[in-house]
Write a structure and sequence with these properties.
It contains ten helices and six strands. It has about 260 residues and is α/β, with parallel strands linked by helices. It has a single domain, classed as Nucleotidyltransferase, domain 5. A hairpin with a 2-residue loop joins strand 1 and strand 2. Helix 8 packs across helix 9. The relative contact order is 0.19.
Length: about 260
């Protein structure tokens, strides 16, 4: 990613904070208490959905795992975020699908920043082991029918799709013939890598999570990675709204990494 391609972090934060019903930095009042506040009405009444798709490292056509995590702004608008937005992140729902067809495949050669062989270590519920055909159908259904407390089950809610370095995930979705605009009502795509990286040096998921104090145990499990990506987004937008210096200090290693000659455009 060259400097001219670097996304505008402030613009992304303003957008996501509006979607969560959080004030933009320049509108936040020093008298506003984020621990007890009643939220501004979230823009678009959206459901945030984070995805992580794992494929065989030697054959990218073989999808081995899918993780999906969901957070409904109809839920978060009813409760104060709490310290570090912990009350909001506690409402994240996560699912983890393992492809039965490729269950024996483990990524051990190129895995970085986490332990290989974590497929069975989903920390947010029970993994579902299903065929590749069923996985595609279930994943498509989840994207189009997120769980939420109100409304008709046929209601078509706006979806904010979240990922970390999500270009590969989008390619996998395309390969699975999942169309985001028709199978799901995706109105925004947010890449958390854009919020914690410097120019052409994209931060890894593990680096971002570690700096935010989020667990990285059993990383590269698609369900864990999806849930923690969404947790990281919530935590970053919360801190950016009320404690921007704290966020900058937490991410200073990835926002201001040592630059070598090879990194320069």
């Amino acid at each position: 990613m060259t400097p001219k391609d670097q996304p505008d972090r402030d613009e992304i934060f303003d957008k996501v904070q509006a979607l969560f019903g959080l004030p933009q930095v320049h509108n936040a009042s020093s008298a506003f208490d984020p621990e007890t506040c009643t939220q501004i009405r979230p823009l678009k009444d959206a459901v945030f959905m984070a995805i992580d798709i794992e494929a065989c490292e030697t054959d990218q056509s073989k999808i081995t795992e899918v993780g999906i995590a969901m957070l409904d702004t109809r839920v978060t608008r009813r409760i104060s975020p709490g310290e570090g937005a912990a009350a909001w992140t506690a409402t994240i729902l996560a699912r983890h699908y393992i492809t039965k067809d490729f269950i024996e495949l483990e990524n051990t050669k190129y895995v970085k920043g986490g332990e290989p062989g974590t497929k069975q270590d989903f920390a947010y519920g029970t993994s579902q082991v299903i065929s590749i055909g069923k996985l595609k159908n279930w994943f498509r259904y989840d994207l189009g029918h997120p769980p939420y407390p109100d409304g008709d089950v046929k209601e078509r809610r706006p979806i904010v799709l979240v990922g970390h370095g999500m270009q590969n995930d989008l390619k996998y979705l395309e390969a699975m013939k999942i169309r985001l605009e028709s199978d799901a009502n995706v109105v925004e795509k947010i890449d958390t890598q854009d919020l914690c990286s410097y120019r052409s040096l994209p931060a890894s998921l593990e680096a971002m999570l570690s700096q935010l104090g989020i667990d990285t145990t059993a990383s590269h499990n698609a369900g864990n990675d999806a849930a923690r990506t969404l947790e990281a987004l919530v935590k970053m937008v919360f801190l950016n709204a009320y404690y921007p210096k704290m966020l900058h200090d937490a991410l200073k290693t990835t926002l201001n990494p040592p630059i070598t000659a090879e990194d320069l455009p």
